[in-house]
Amino acid sequence: MTRRQHDPLLIADLELPEESAREWATSSGYGAYLDVLRANGQMSTPTPTPTPSPTPTPAPTTTPTPTPTPPPTTNGATTVVAVGDIACDPGSSSWNNNNGTATACRHKYTAELAKRLAPAYVLALGDLQYEDGALAKFQQSYDPTWGQLKTLTKPVPGNHEYQTSGASGYYDYFGALAGDRSKGYYVFDLGNNWIAIAINSNCSKVGGCGAGSPQYQFVQNVLQANRGKNVLVFLHHPYWTTGNYYGQYKSSLGDLYRLFDQYGVDLSLAGHDHNYQRYAIQNADSVCNTGSVRHFVVGTGGKNVYDADVHAADEPCDEVRIDNAYGVLKLVLYSDHYEWAFVREDGTVLDQGSSSVR
User: Fold this and answer.
1) pLDDT for 255 beyond 80
2) In this structure, which CATH number among 3.40.50.2300, 3.60.40.10, 2.30.110.10, 3.60.21.10 belongs to the domain 79-356?
3) How far, in Å, are 92, 127, 132, 146, 236 from residue 168 at the CA level?
């Protein structure tokens, strides 16, 4: 990681005492210095197209060239916005009455971006309200910003939500939108032959995620009943990540991801690592260009951002890593393909592409 002295994003600016120290460690020794836009795979500015694009072989690349924000897609497709790790604690020195600083607590601005993208659904990927998901904090921080999209939102809980007993603040705030509060997992129809399955990756809170657990059986039944449908799954903790949490959830989530292989799930979305990552299609054993699942990490909702390169050498199928930008993932879902764009808070597209469904 190259350290640029003029880059203003210093860890000292963030003042986030409740984040664990290892979230800021990097292999470079500089700390999570937020100054590099990375992509691994040779790239020029891609242009979305309704025909499938070939899956690239992962390789080191240059920085992707930003392009203008794409216009809203029509023709009956379903537009989805997804992001996690969103609203700062009102007690943070960077909160500033939801105005944030230049380098942290940017949730107001990612919410404004999401509104401009005019989605049919917002997939909220957990850790939605720091530091503990208390209802009063949701009402002060999340609600005036991302709460403007609440009626469109399909949430999953993160680990910070469960720092309040039973994630009660989260369930009280979202109500029926969050599903059964004893489970936190559910399914819904996205249209255009797509369904979405919300996974509660706080496995110990819901009786596990492994084979035979209630959540596993629920997911298996949904997939069995919807053979022939395109499937998107979303959760908080990433099965694949090059960031600080590399490998930490492959055991707890492994049975689910092998199930996703079996039924040909198309898309997997997660947060938890505060950066953006895109992967080639791979199977649960991380064999690239095999299986059906394309995975995204989108932990760029506003709290802070940090290093995506800590384990870059350990994930063979990662294609793009961006760790100095706040923004959201925009998905446009058609019956036979999907398009993606990672859009920075100012509307600039930093990554985009398209792929056929399985």
Assistant:
1) yes
2) 3.60.21.10
3) 22, 14, 10, 19, 17
